[in-house]
Design brief:
Dimeric_a/b-barrel, two-stranded antiparallel sheet, YCII, Alpha-Beta Plaits, 4-stranded antiparallel β-sheet, alpha+beta
Length: about 130
């Protein structure tokens, strides 16, 4: 099953040395998961100061600088993994350095065949 591990944290909660150590440890875990065939993709994200949000309302595109959510914790990166079950995803999330000062949210990825089946069922019922 595929899971998205979303890394959240306060950008100001890490010292520069802690941030470097976090990146090194995260890269080590990414390499291990890659070797085990469990990692699909992972990347850190640039600061929220680089974010642009796009919304379309009543056919009008609205563009704003900044992140979607105005919270103290921001999305800082992700891991896309393919593991047997949620317990394995939790074990991996628990190893990630950002879990110590922030949050790792785990969400299953909606399989595309199911997505297509759901869309086809909706069209048939209309």
């Amino acid at each position: 099953m595929k899971y998205m591990l979303l890394i959240y944290g306060n950008e100001d909660c890490w010292t520069e040395d802690e941030r470097k150590e976090c990146m090194l440890e995260s890269m080590k875990i990414s390499n291990e998961l890659q070797q085990e065939g469990k990692l699909i993709s992972s990347d850190p994200l640039y600061s929220i100061t680089t974010a642009t949000s796009v919304r379309v309302r009543e056919g009008n595109r609205q563009i704003t600088d900044g992140p979607f959510a105005e919270t103290s914790e921001q999305l800082g990166g992700y891991y896309l993994i393919d593991v047997e079950n949620l317990d394995e995803a939790i074990a991996i999330a628990s190893r990630l350095p950002p879990a110590k000062l922030g949050t790792v949210e785990i969400r299953p990825v909606f399989p595309k065949p199911e997505l297509l089946d759901t869309a086809t069922e909706r069209k048939a019922s209309v």
